[in-house]
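ARCHIVE CARD
CATEGORY: sequence design from structure
SOURCE FIELD: tokenized fold
FIELD CONTENT:
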């Protein structure tokens, strides 16, 4: 497994002049989060729940800043109603979603939302792309950012468990 794919996401965020990062802490995004926090040009806001990030990033966009929402697939369910806002107001909302309930999942409670993540996002008008290998990460994140800011819509890059690694409980 290539451990440097989060660095490629960070570099892609910089190319796209992302200055606002909304997130709920997530182990799958840990390295990317540390990179963003260390960057004085980025404002990182830790949320109490993912839907707050939708409102924050729409406000950031209205104020002239570009941002991204980092979350786990289980947080997508928390955002469903709020995802009507970027569609209604034709505002970009790029989301980077680490998947759970996916390849090699140990926790059966993660499987339903893992299976529903892409269809739920698409049902709410979100354009979805997926990366399952390190080589796919930068092009997929770049595509999602371009789609969001060129089409003024919500977009999501799903980062699969084959990429981030399946979590385990205790010893195998």
């Amino acid at each position: 497994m290539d451990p440097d794919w989060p660095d490629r996401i960070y570099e892609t965020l910089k190319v796209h002049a992302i200055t606002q990062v909304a997130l709920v802490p997530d182990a799958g995004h840990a390295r990317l989060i540390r990179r963003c926090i260390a960057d004085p040009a980025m404002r990182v806001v830790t949320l109490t729940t993912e839907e707050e990030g939708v409102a924050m990033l729409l406000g950031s966009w209205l104020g002239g800043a570009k941002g991204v929402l980092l979350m786990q697939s289980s947080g997508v369910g928390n955002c469903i109603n709020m995802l009507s806002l970027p569609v209604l107001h034709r505002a970009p909302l790029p989301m980077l979603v680490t998947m759970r309930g996916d390849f090699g999942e140990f926790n059966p409670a993660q499987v339903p939302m893992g299976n529903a993540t892409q269809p739920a996002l698409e049902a709410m008008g979100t354009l979805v792309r997926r990366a399952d290998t390190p080589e796919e990460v930068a092009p997929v994140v770049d595509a999602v950012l371009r789609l969001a800011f060129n089409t003024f819509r919500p977009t999501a890059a799903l980062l699969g468990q084959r990429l981030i690694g399946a979590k385990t409980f205790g010893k195998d």
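CARD ANNOTATION: The first strand starts at residue 18 and ends at 23. The longest helix spans residues 134-151.
SHELF: design records, drawer C
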